[in-house]
């Protein structure tokens, strides 16, 4: 992982106190094995989260974006930029009842096809350790499992937007809400000028409807298997932080007709009129994530919503007395639903449940 910068600044504010305190670092961290290890852990946490939102900068909120472009254009150092971001964010919390404790970690990486910027809200936790003379002592360590918000910007795409001189609504900005502290996370999202441009839940729901239509054209034994393969592939791509490419998925579903599913998805998307005008840059560059169709383009990839994927294969829910979870394939066979009565009829109960229901019977 080619990390090029890594620096942290401490930020603290108690709810009863009017001002947030920022302790800035004098120098960047050395990009060594420890730095790469921490970055790997933080990126892993970020990638596996299901609570990511995708968008771009709000054109009406220019402060954060302007400072970032100043750094990208070498008008200020990375260290100076991170200090200004930390201090200005802290200023927004002054005279509020918000509270925060921990660090803002700023990191950049250079990849083969793009450069990325990350901002992580880090927290610590207490732990015990043995000193050199074998005595117990308290220590403070980073609590990766309790990482707060994460911001990720494709800085290559941001610079391209600036060079073209027009606002882009591409998904080059990712924001992930962490555990707790929702007011703080929303404040930082607003401070950074993040706005959603992609509804992953809606797009995933549409995709799953198309999958259902595709599966209905297959023999019964292939239908369930195909749906399972689609979900498994999508979940795995989501865990790796990668988009679902319909072309790749299509080849995995049917090696004898590798374009069959891809073409079916494109056809159904056209029928739903889920298209947008082809931009000049797309016509000139032949953007590989879009399939040109006359005067319009159809998206050929998907950033999936993990919750929608899981609900597609299983129905689940609970209240104070009952917890239910069953495979979607069971509906209509072992399980039937009566919408007029809001009731389920279940046959072929698990043997373990039967033993609990009929303890006097040893034959079940």
UniProtKB/TrEMBL annotation:
UniProt entry keywords in alphabetical sequence: Cytoplasm
InterPro entries: Nucleoid_associated_NdpA (IPR007358)
Domain of life assignment: Bacteria
Claim: Cytoplasm is one of the keywords in the record: yes
Pfam hit, one: NA37
A GO-annotated cellular component: nucleoid
Family: Belongs to the YejK family.
Record-given protein name: Nucleoid-associated protein NdpA
Origin species: Oleispira antarctica RB-8
């Amino acid at each position: 992982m080619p990390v090029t910068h890594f620096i942290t600044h401490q930020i603290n504010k108690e709810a009863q106190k009017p001002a947030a305190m920022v302790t800035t670092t004098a120098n960047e961290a050395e990009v060594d094995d420890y730095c790469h290890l921490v970055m790997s852990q933080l990126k892993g946490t970020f990638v596996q989260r299901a609570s990511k939102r995708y968008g771009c900068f709000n054109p009406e909120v220019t402060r954060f974006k302007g400072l970032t472009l100043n750094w990208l254009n070498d008008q200020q150092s990375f260290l100076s930029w991170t200090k200004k971001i930390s201090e200005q964010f802290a200023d927004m919390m002054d005279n509020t009842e918000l509270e925060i404790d921990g660090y803002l970690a700023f990191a950049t990486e250079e990849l083969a096809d793009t450069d990325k910027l990350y901002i992580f809200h880090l927290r610590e936790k207490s732990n015990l350790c043995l000193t050199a003379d074998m005595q117990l002592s308290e220590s403070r360590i980073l609590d990766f499992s309790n990482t707060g918000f994460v911001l990720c910007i494709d800085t290559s795409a941001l610079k391209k937007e600036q060079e073209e001189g027009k606002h882009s609504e591409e998904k080059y900005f990712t924001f992930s809400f962490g555990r707790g502290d929702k007011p703080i996370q929303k404040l930082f999202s607003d401070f950074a000028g993040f706005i959603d441009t992609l509804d992953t839940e809606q797009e995933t729901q549409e995709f799953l409807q198309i999958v259902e239509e595709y599966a209905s054209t297959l023999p019964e034994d292939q239908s369930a298997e195909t749906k399972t393969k689609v979900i498994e592939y999508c979940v795995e791509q989501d865990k790796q932080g990668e988009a679902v490419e319909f072309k790749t998925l299509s080849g995995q579903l049917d090696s004898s007709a590798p374009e069959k599913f891809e073409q079916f998805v494109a056809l159904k998307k056209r029928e739903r009129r889920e298209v947008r005008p082809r931009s000049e840059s797309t016509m000139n560059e032949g953007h590989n994530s879009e399939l040109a169709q006359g005067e319009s383009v159809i998206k050929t990839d998907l950033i999936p919503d993990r919750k929608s994927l899981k609900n597609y294969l299983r129905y689940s829910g609970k209240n104070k007395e009952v917890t239910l979870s069953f495979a979607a394939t069971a509906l209509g066979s072992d399980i039937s639903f009566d919408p007029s009565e809001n009731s389920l009829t279940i046959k072929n109960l698990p043997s373990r449940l039967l033993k609990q229901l009929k303890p006097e019977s040893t034959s079940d």
